[in-house]
Amino acid sequence: MKILHVSPMYAPALGGAEHHLQAISEGLVCRGHAVTVFTANVVNGLDAWLSRHGGLPEVEFINGVKVVRFDPEGGLLAKAFDKWLRLKGGWRSVNYIFTPGGLELLSQGPRTLTMIPQILRCNADIIASMNWYWPPAYHTYLAGRLKRFTLVGIPLFHTAQPWCNRSIYRRMLPSHDAVIVNTNYEGQFAQERGATRVEVTGVGIDPHTFDRRRGEDVRAYYGLGSFPVVGFVGRQEATKGVVKLIEAMRTVWEWNKEVRLVLAGPRSDEKVEAKLVNLPSNQKARIVQIGLFEEKDKGSIFDAFDVFAMPSREESFGITYLEAWLCNKPVIGARIGPTQCVIDEGRDGLLADPEDPEDIARAIIALLSNSNMREKLGRSGHDKAIAQYTWDKVVDKVEGLYLGLAATKAARGFAKLLPSNQIATPGS
């Protein structure tokens, strides 16, 4: 098959969505398919938002995937669009034609409008757009309005976030031949907004990623010794549950002052900073800040934990739960729809109200006070991750969907070549 993936960012840009698409694209290449990625020439989300050129090669091959990068400023098409808006009645006409939701995405960076004619020229069997928060998915949809091709959406809806309720998605979803989602919850969300076919593929991990983990080295380096350790890995943001996790630790420390909290990942949230600054000195001493770390160290960081806790209220899936399970660690997540599709409460982790520090503390204490439960839940999570959530299994599902859609398209094309009296009918 010839496959075109459209995405706002791609490697070397870092992020969960970027890693997700790279794993799928490279997995399909390994199976003999030709995969091209259309993306903006940006290196991070801020550059994408500001439509700031990243200076990357316009075309290159990354592990067999052809990557074509477009000017994030939009080139002549964006200039023509802006000129149209400045004409008398221009804004009103654009708003009428594209709707307010479409106008919002056409105005937001990265403004990869020059993708549209290139999508129209391509002869891919499947065209799939990923990460619908950004405009390239809308540009792909507009191309699909001009030329009929097999279109797949991979929206990555974080259903609790306001952007997911943009009215434009009620136009985009029904126009797609299929929509790929991470959980049944996201699938229901998409169907309620018009998706006609939904495929749940989930997110994947490489089972051998953390084979060389050494949690004891992390414990020694940060002075964790034999203390009970609760860990968090990811962007240290309030929406990820970090503030409520810190508040929960007050109750945990009333139960056992020896417990340590490890926060690993970039800090950029003022609410998290304020919470940490205002802690009493004796509580600050029980928190270890790792901050940014190299990817090769991630497995050892997870391995140093007794419990992994991420009571995030805005997850689409939560790949860090899989990473913790890969290290045989029990997990604590938020009691929200998407996370409930990932964590089986009492079997491979516990769930808590993401707005209630006392409930989060309850889950932490339950696990820290019962080593048998920790071992049982961690082992069960590991087995589930290996059985259901490796990248090979995700690519199996995506490839199966693509092949089925391509076969249906080919059958329709063949039927058009036959005289009407030779077209097979059911039962013939």
Task: Describe the protein.
This protein folds into 2 domains: 229 residues, Glycogen Phosphorylase B (Rossmann fold); 174 residues, Glycogen Phosphorylase B (Rossmann fold), CATH 3.40.50.2000. It is globular and about 75 Å long. The longest helix has 27 residues. It contains 18 helices and 14 strands. The protein has 428 residues and is α/β, with parallel strands linked by helices. The C terminus is likely disordered. The chain is 44% helix and 15% strand. Helix 1 packs across helix 18 and helix 10 runs parallel beside helix 11.
Concise description?
The protein has helices at residues 16-30, 45-50, 75-86, 90-107, 115-121, 136-146, 169-172, 184-192, 215-221, 242-255, 270-277, 281-284, 298-303, 319-326, 337-340, 357-368, 371-388, 391-417, and strands spanning 2-7, 34-40, 59-62, 65-70, 126-130, 151-154, 178-181, 198-200, 229-233, 260-264, 287-291, 307-310, 331-334, 349-352. With 428 residues, it is of the alpha/beta class.
At the first level of CATH, the class of the largest domain is Alpha Beta
Protein structure class? alpha/beta
Secondary structure tally: strands: 14
Strand order of the largest sheet: 3-4-2-1-5-6-7-8
Gap between N and C termini: 30 Å
Assign the CATH architecture of the largest domain: 3-Layer(aba) Sandwich
Mean pLDDT: 92
For this structure, the CATH topology of the largest domain is: Rossmann fold
Instruction: Give the oligomeric state.
Output: single chain
Could you name the CATH homologous superfamily of the largest domain?
Glycogen Phosphorylase B
Rg result: 24 Å
User: Number of helical runs?
Assistant: 18
Strand content: 15-25%
Helix content: 40-55%
Shape: globular
Low-confidence stretches: 423-428
